[in-house]
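[[Encoded backbone]]
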Amino acid sequence: MLFFSLLLSFGLTNEVPPKTDGEAIHVAVVETASTKVGAERFTKGRPGTPRPASDSITASYTHTKMSAGQLRLRLREGLRQGTVSLETIKTAFTDQLVDKIIPHWYGTPWSWGGHTTVPKQGKIACGYFVSTTLRDMGLNLNRYKLAQKSPIDEAKMISCGAPIDKVEQDTPDEAHEEIDRLTQEGLYFIGFDEGHVGYLLKREGELFLIHSNYLAPVSVCMEALKESRVFKKFDTFYLVPISHNETLLQRWLNDEQVL
């Protein structure tokens, strides 16, 4: 029963079938970049008999999600006892999401309306990539409802009342400069006008876009924001802090509903 409860808390239960979300549909057809599967192969039965790669990916990702849940419990207890600071929680949350959860998804193909829950199995749209990874990090939200919102409404839900920065500039260089000015080290949600969503990461002073990319390589990837073809197509952006959103992090710690 305890194991089943853990699986339930990590979202490994049946969900309502999704509707199509409002992601951009006029895209160039390009070849998907090849990627390596980073999970180890497990064996069962006779020694040396490999299990299918899909089983290995699922098992590896399940373990990563469980680790995120254990991290949340440790940090919550540490905060209660006064041995863990909120700054430590901000860093730990960001590192777990950016360096543990999200890398499983790199190379997963994009499609309009794609909604797979398993990395590299099926396809994933931009909105579902964000909502699924946040859900798998342990945030109490409905990934379908979040993914089906417009970028600005998605920003409002993730913000939990925190300020939303709107950037409107005539050129990509001006937009990049303004985004750089408005952000500090950490992770953000970024909405692209009415057409796209993803994560914005600022690390060691550099800005990166992490998203399910509907242009080359037509898959989940991380790229320098300034070099992103998707970024260059838009002139209006919405920024919401994730790493520095104390209300959102408190809801994560206490398993309180976000959406």
The chain has one domain: 50-253.
